[in-house]
Amino acid sequence: MLEKFAQSGKKDVVLIADEVEGEALSILVLNKLKGVFNTIAVKAPKFQ
């Protein structure tokens, strides 16, 4: 999914997920440091 987004030329990403950890978090940080994406990760609210 991120590859298609990168090909579109857009750089700002808002990611809404239950958890962002491990390899996924590492990839987001690495892409930010390289200037590929400006990413913000938001923890999804839990509904009962």
Brief summary of the model shown:
The protein is α+β, with helices and mostly antiparallel strands. Helices cover 40% and strands 25% of the residues. It has a two-stranded parallel sheet with strand order 1-2.
Topology:
Layout: H1 2-7, E1 12-17, H2 22-34, E2 38-43
Parallel strand pairs: 1-2
Write a structural description.
This is Molecular chaperone GroEL. InterPro entries: GroEL-like_apical_dom_sf. This protein is of the alpha+beta class and 48 residues long. The model has no long low-confidence stretch (mean pLDDT 87). It contains 2 helices and 2 strands; from the N terminus they run H-E-H-E. The termini are far apart. Strands 1-2 form a two-stranded parallel ribbon. It has one domain (2-43). The protein has helices at residues 2-7, 22-34; strands spanning 12-17, 38-43.
Q: What's the alpha carbon Rg, rounded to whole Å?
A: 12 Å
Number of domain modules: 1
Query: Largest sheet, if any?
Result: 2 strands, parallel
| Category by helix and strand content | alpha+beta
Strand portion: 25-35%
Distance between the termini: 29 Å
Q: Percent of residues in helical segments? A: 25-40%
Mean pLDDT figure: 87
Global morphology: globular
Number of strands: 2
Regions with little confidence, pLDDT below 50 for 5+ residues: none
- Give, in spatial order, the strands making up the sheet with the most strands: 1-2
- Could you give the order of the helices and strands? HEHE
DSSP helical segment count? 2
Assembly classification = single chain
